[in-house]
Design goal:
heterodimer; A: alpha/beta; Rossmann fold; 11 strands; 45% helix; B: mainly alpha; ABC transporter involved in vitamin B12 uptake, BtuC; disordered N terminus
Chain lengths: 291, 335
């Protein structure tokens, strides 16, 4: 076992090193990475927003599906990868951006081949989202664009109507496929708070990301149910929970609010759009008053 | 071993099991994941008020309990009937691959279907179950030994299981690939009243077909020739059992996934109470199946293990030792 692993590593090294060297030699004269490959849906979006299109060689196939990616149109203009080393090496990247929890084998091998890999964690709140945008922009040699994007997000957030501080804060459950609900210490929790909701997933202390039984959702008498899915996606049991007849029977309270998951799956600039939608829903609920 | 040890008078057995099944249905309604004021829920539901309590009762608790009863009855009844027809105590929808094939049919319709009508889901399950039953009879029909029957079951199960996994991997929804456990192990979680309306009529037709086979199954114990001379046509008897099993098991699997061993354990336990008459075993097995599935579903909700266990986990842990016991007995009889 160890022998074969060692042998494979040696073989991989023999094949990879020359490719990596030629890539490094072909590096851009101005010091900015010229051949960027992204291995993660979320780094894809940042790369598509911040990098010059001719410097971005490849993004994941996930981003090219408009159900997942916010920039599917732009993503289709780049080569797709599936996070496999064999696809990525021939592209001779001088910078690979990846998520901290995805494509672990590819990241390890690319690092061993001497390719510069920068990994990005999942931010836990809005401050982390903005910090990550700045870090990402610095990694690809475009710090000014990063600062500009953050400033644009701040401006959009400032334009949103403030919720009425005298009215009661509406209580909401976020229901994700399979009945999961994000709790305290998750980005969604921070987004909900920023939008003027009380996240029941957090106040009931179900853990950071827990399954909440449908019974509990119904009996908790929430003001809003934020259903995190596309209404017309392909069928699965996981998403069937989100269309259970009882949720429709309950309406108008809790009110069903649909937020496409692509807006907040990634902790990117699109969370501003999620906050905007949620804030107007919260304002509506406050105007309607509580029963 | 069988006829002599009748302990419960037969006319008491069916009512006793029916009462037990209904009692467990009621108990199942009382059990859930959130404290529910049942009195308030029933009052509100009766008055037609759409309060959260009434909705939890009508849209979550009742469908779960009723489906548990119906699915258990279908599996118990189909198991007893198939064992009578094949004259083999191992002929059980799960072991011989009928449940697995029904799951494949339902999966193909559910994940790739064009949503023509809601009815396509149970029809997919029924088609899969019917196809597997026909293949089973072709491979291990008349007079085939236990070995052939089990091997045919292994083959059908292996094919259906892997084809189900393949279909789920190819399904357009990214969550589908993770849902193979539901289809192969079964669950009553978050089913709705719509599933009850969809499944109940089709299952009921299946039950009637199976119960109609009772006199023929009794006659068959005397041997095929004697049964024929008594005026029972074997081909029509087979048709009743195949149609009935396909309808009952196919529909059950389409709405709750494949729940194993119910059709094995229940007839096995009840056989000694009714003597060696497969026809008389049918109705007790139906109610016994209801009792077993409802008890398993109460167990998965009260065990405290989260995420909730699949029903097949519980029924298999209870059921597999019975299978060992049966194989042991068959072995002793053969040597």
């Amino acid at each position: 076992m160890a022998v074969s692993a060692g042998f494979r590593a040696a073989l991989a090294g023999a094949v990879l090193v020359p490719v990596a060297l030629s890539a490094a030699l072909a590096g851009a004269p101005d010091g900015r990475p010229a051949r960027i490959v992204s291995l993660n849906l979320c780094t894809d979006e940042l790369a598509l927003r911040l990098a010059d299109p001719d410097r971005l060689v490849s993004v994941t196939w996930l981003s090219q599906d408009p159900r997942n990616g916010n920039l599917a149109e732009a993503a289709r203009r780049h080569r797709a990868n599936h996070g496999l080393v064999e696809e990525i090496l021939p592209l001779a990247p001088d910078l690979v951006v990846a998520g901290r929890y995805t494509t672990r084998h590819a990241v390890a091998m690319l690092k061993r081949a001497g390719i510069r890999v920068v990994e990005f964690d999942i931010p836990k709140d809005l401050t982390g989202v903005k910090a990550q945008i700045v870090d990402f922009a610095a990694a690809i040699g475009e710090p000014a664009r990063g600062r500009a994007l953050v400033a644009q997000m701040d401006a959009e957030l400032a334009r949103l109507a403030l919720s009425d501080p005298r009215a009661a804060v509406p209580r909401a459950f976020v229901l994700r496929p399979n009945g999961f609900t994000p709790g305290r210490g998750s980005l969604v929790d921070d987004v909900l708070t920023a939008a003027g909701f009380d996240n029941l997933g957090a106040s009931l202390d179900l853990g950071a990301y827990a399954q909440v039984p449908l019974e509990r959702v119904v009996l908790e008498r929430a003001d809003a149910l934020i259903v995190d899915t596309e209404p017309d996606g392909p069928p699965s049991l996981a998403t069937a929970v989100l269309t259970h007849p009882i949720l429709r029977a309950l309406s108008p309270r809790p009110r069903l609010i649909s937020i496409p998951s692509r807006l907040w799956t990634c902790a990117g600039p699109s969370v501003v759009a999620a906050i905007a939608r949620l804030r107007s829903a919260a304002a509506d609920l406050q105007k309607g008053g509580r029963p | 071993m069988s006829g002599a040890s009748r302990t419960v008078p037969e006319r008491l057995l069916v009512p006793a099991l029916a009462v037990a099944a209904l009692a467990l249905t009621a108990a199942s309604v009382g059990i859930g994941y959130a404290p529910l004021d049942l009195t308030a829920a029933i009052t509100d539901a009766w008055a037609g008020r759409n309060t959260p309590e009434a909705l939890v009762l009508l849209e979550l608790r009742l469908p779960r309990a009723i489906l548990g009863l119906l699915v258990g009855m279908s599996l118990g009844l189909a198991g007893a009937a198939m064992q009578g027809l094949l004259r083999n105590p191992l002929a059980e929808p799960g072991i011989v691959g009928i449940s697995g094939a029904a799951a494949l049919g339902a999966v193909l319709v559910f994940y790739f279907g064009t949503n023509l009508t809601q009815l396509t889901l149970p029809l997919g399950g029924i088609a899969g179950a019917a196809l597997a039953t026909i293949v089973l009879f072709a491979l291990a029909g008349r007079g085939a030994g236990t070995t052939t029957l089990i091997l045919a079951g292994v083959a059908i199960n292996a094919f259906a299981g892997s084809a189900t996994a393949l279909a789920l991997n190819l399904a357009p929804n990214p969550y589908a690939a993770l849902e193979v456990v539901f289809w192969l192990m079964g669950s009553l979680a978050d089913r709705s009243l719509a599933h009850v309306w969809l499944a109940a009529p089709l299952m009921a037709i299946g039950w009637l077909a199976l119960l109609a086979a009772a006199p023929g199954l009794d006659a068959l114990t005397l041997g095929e020739d004697t049964a024929t001379s008594l005026g029972f046509r074997l081909s029509s008897l087979r048709l009743w059992v195949i149609t009935g099993s396909a309808l009952a098991v196919g529909t059950a699997v389409a709405v709750t996934g494949a729940i194993g061993f119910v059709g094995l354990v229940v007839p096995h336990l009840l056989r000694r109470l009714v003597g060696s008459r497969p026809g008389a075993l049918l109705l007790p097995s139906a109610f016994g199946g209801g009792v077993m599935v409802l008890a398993a579903d109460i167990a998965v909700r009260t065990s405290g293990i989260r995420p909730e266990l699949k029903l097949g986990v519980v029924t298999s842990i209870v059921g597999a030792p019975f299978l060992f016991h049966l194989i042991w007995r068959l072995r002793r009889r053969m040597t």
